[in-house]
Amino acid sequence: MRTAKGSRARGTGSLHGVHPSTVGELIKYGTRRFLGARLVYGHGTTAAAQEAAYLVAHALRVRPDRLHTRLAAAPSPSQLGRALDLISARIALRQPAAYLVHEAWLGTRRFYVDDRVIVPRSHIAEMLRDDLAPWIKEPGKIATALDLGTGSGCLAVLLAHSFRRARIDAIDISQAALAVARTNVRRYRLQARIRLLESDLFSAIRGVRYDLIVSNPPYVTTASMRRLPAEYRHEPRLALAAGRDGLTIVRRIIRQARSHLKPGGLLVVEVGGGRRRVEQAFSGIEFVWPQTTAGHPVFVVWREQLPVP
Question: Could you give the CA distance from residue 59 to residue 158 in angstroms, rounded to a whole number?
Answer without folding.
Answer: 26
